[in-house]
Design goal:
The complex is a heterodimer of chains A (90) and B (158). In chain A, 80% of the residues lie in helices and 0% in strands. Chain A contains five helices and no strands. The termini of chain A are far apart. Chain B is mainly α. Chain B has one domain (12-31, 41-89, 108-157). Helix content of chain B is 63%, strand content 0%. Chain B is built from five helices and no strands. Classes of the chains: A mainly alpha (90), B mainly alpha (158). The interface between A and B is large, with 42 and 51 residues.
Chain lengths: 90, 158
């Protein structure tokens, strides 16, 4: 890494490209859709776009799960709830 | 490896366990502070907001100060409980790696700006850190969703 840095400014973009691709491919691994498709290069902006969409859908999931949990907790039998808790705590 | 590599976060199953512990503890507190049969819409809405905040707080506290996003979430919660609606100017974080030249390949891309809005605490970090934080954030969100789904399934057994 240090040898690359000692190069001239002109190659700064070359450094960035390598690093970008590395990071972008790592991010790509986490995305559910792109991962199942071909593993060669997807454009960086596509990865970013999919990342944004994925995060938004996860947020929506958490919202709806919170709704359901709030409802269920309301009606939960307290004994049943404590049994569940003790099971999960193990 | 990348120059700014943070220590890797906990493996997914331990993350889920720790999150489950804290989240369930928080839910227990929520349950006790609630009044009796409150079936009106407003009450339910507020309850679900509290569950949601408990969920994000639990996950952020498991990750702790290791990550910028979790610090941002915890800071936001603390601020909110302190100020109750007063608007505070967001404190700008110093760049933790001032020697490295600012890494901004996507800087002006619309996608990156959208991403910065989604990941907590991401507005002032450079693109390198942003990628790492995003990856960790996604891993934790996925763990969060899985645990919550399990809980919903368990509580749905009548």
């Amino acid at each position: 890494m240090s040898t690359r840095r000692s190069r001239s400014r002109q190659s700064a973009s070359r450094i960035s490209d390598d690093q970008i691709n590395d990071l972008v491919s790592k991010l790509q691994q986490l995305l559910p859709e792109i991962r199942t498709h071909r593993s060669d290069k997807v454009s960086a902006s596509k990865v970013l776009q999919e990342t944004c969409n994925y995060i938004r859908s996860l947020h929506r999931d958490i919202d709806s799960l919170s709704d359901r949990l709030a409802e269920l907790l309301e009606n939960a039998d307290p004994i049943q709830a404590s049994i569940i808790r003790s099971l999960l705590m193990q | 490896m990348s120059p700014s590599q943070q220590p890797t976060s906990t493996n997914p199953s331990s993350l889920k366990n720790q999150f489950a512990h804290r989240f369930i503890r928080a839910l227990k507190t929520l349950n006790h502070t609630k009044t009796g049969a409150a079936h009106d819409h407003n009450q339910m809405y507020r309850r679900s907001i509290r569950v949601k905040i408990a969920s994000y707080t639990a996950m952020a506290s498991v990750v702790g100060s290791r990550r910028a996003w979790s610090r941002a979430v915890l800071w936001k919660i603390i601020k909110r409980s302190r100020n109750q609606g007063l608007l505070l100017r967001k404190r700008k974080r110093r760049n933790p790696n001032p020697k490295r030249e600012d890494f901004n390949p996507f800087r002006n891309s619309g996608q990156e700006l959208k991403l910065r809005k989604l990941v907590p605490g991401a507005e002032t970090m450079d693109s390198w850190c942003l990628m790492g934080e995003t990856a960790d954030y996604i891993k934790c969100l996925v763990a969060q969703v899985e645990v919550m789904k399990t809980l919903v399934d368990l509580y749905s057994i009548t």
